[in-house]
Specification:
About 40% of the residues lie in helices and about 15% in strands. With about 400 residues, the chain is α/β, with parallel strands linked by helices. The chain has a seven-stranded mixed sheet, sandwiched between helices. Strands 13-14-17-16 form a four-stranded antiparallel sheet, with helices on one face. A two-stranded antiparallel sheet has the order 1-2. The chain is globular.
Length: about 400
């Protein structure tokens, strides 16, 4: 990606603590290009209205924009049809919907739910709660020492009693790309479904849910240049048609009587109330932006940055990197010897470098790594090698500062 791409993100043109901003926290949330900011502003200034209700011009334009965004999402991730795309607030909501609706109807005592210990809490707690509600057994695929998950390990856990396998396509801590297509095929062989957390994969690589043959796939717009508060759950039509809503009210109904009600067809039965219209408009604009850049180009750019970062970080003595050396996406998680990650992030911020520090909503993974927290630098399409050089320089200064302090 050249400088013209970076120039489309106005937030990056600022100083933080007297230094030009280096934003390396895109795994938490990405920055937004002008095309997305303009699309959301245009909606509120010209088209602001509720959808699917009014017959007036603004209502029609808002509905066209909202449903047009759904069509863009379907094409972007390779869904067979737009009605397989359910809008919501984000990955967390989508995964909870599957656990509460599909899970409650199809999982019973004695069944098994299979996940990994390196999942984000959003793809762990819903399955914990489903197991508690139903009496099912929660089982874990054991990671390899470098944090990767392989099909052989999955095969030791998935059985004919397994009903659901849930796994992230990409780890939000270690940047590991998991073989979800192969694990999904194994799940299907045993009569189970596979649910994929796509929060960290959708922004960074080309996605084709039909090729993956996943049954459900959830992701968030805010990690892929769209506004916060908009997310997507993809589900195979045959599965969604047999699921009950978990939120009830306006917009999702077909007919309401005093003692019973019926629901709209897909996908609107799962979108009760006024939807996140401006967020969907922004997501559509973000998809246009990413499509123009080309997701293969985005993936190649990130891979190059990640490998450059791994090489430069390797020059710093006393810095431990978690996960495999080969990185496909732009996430590098590390700790500096005898310096708490929060202290590392604080000192880096004083040099204008923004990273994440903490358990990253992955406390079981932190325990598996035998640490309480880590520092994480995550790159996106607007970053470059100079940003990584700034990170390395700030890390060296951090090490010197705490070395002098001790």
């Amino acid at each position: 990606m050249d400088a013209s791409v970076r120039a489309q993100f106005p937030i990056l043109d600022q100083e933080v603590n007297g230094h030009p901003l280096v934003y390396l926290d895109s795994a938490a949330t990405s920055q937004k290009p002008r095309a997305v900011l303009d699309a959301v502003r245009h909606y509120y200034e010209w088209d602001n209205s509720n959808v699917h209700r009014g017959v007036h011009t603004l209502g029609s334009r808002a509905t066209d924009a909202y449903e047009g965004a759904r069509e863009k999402v379907a094409k972007f991730i390779g869904a067979a049809r737009p009605e397989e795309i359910v809008f919501n607030r984000g990955t967390t909501v989508g995964l909870n919907l599957v656990a509460a609706s599909y899970g409650n109807a199809n999982v019973k005592e004695g069944d098994e739910i299979v996940i990994t210990p390196i999942e984000h809490h959003s793809n762990l707690i819903p399955w914990q709660q489903l197991a508690k509600r139903t009496g099912a057994t929660l089982k874990y695929i054991e990671p390899n020492p470098d944090g990767t998950i392989d099909v052989e390990a999955a095969g030791k856990v998935i059985t004919d009693r397994t009903k659901i396998v849930a796994i992230a396509y990409v780890s939000n801590v270690m940047g590991v790309v998991h073989p979800v297509k192969e694990i999904g095929a194994l799940a299907h062989k045993h009569g189970a479904i596979i649910v994929v957390d796509g929060a960290q994969s959708t922004p960074h690589m080309k996605i084709d849910v039909q090729d993956l043959d996943c049954d459900f796939y959830a992701f968030s717009g805010h990690k892929m240049c769209a506004p916060t508060g908009i997310g997507v759950l993809y589900g195979k039509k045959a599965l969604l048609e047999n699921m009950e809503p978990v939120e009830f009210g306006g917009e999702m109904i077909d007919d309401v009587g005093l003692y019973d009600s019926t629901w709209k067809e897909l996908p609107w039965r799962f979108e009760g109330g006024t939807p996140i219209i401006a967020g969907a408009v922004g997501l559509g604009a973000a998809i246009d932006f990413l499509t123009e850049l080309g997701m293969d180009n985005v993936a190649e750019h990130e891979h190059r940055l990640a490998m450059y970062a791994m090489r430069r970080i390797g020059e710093i003595e006393g810095l431990q990197v978690f996960g495999p050396q080969e990185r496909k996406v732009g996430i590098v998680t590390f700790n500096l010897d005898e310096v708490h990650p929060h202290d590392v992030a604080t000192v880096l911020d004083s040099y204008g470098v923004a990273i994440r520090a903490g358990h990253h909503c992955c406390q079981p993974l932190m325990r598996w790594l035998n640490v309480s927290s880590t520092a994480r630098a995550s790159f996106y399409l607007y970053n470059n090698e100079q940003d990584i050089d700034r990170l390395i320089d700030a890390l060296i200064r951090t090490k010197e500062y705490f070395g002098d302090a001790t």
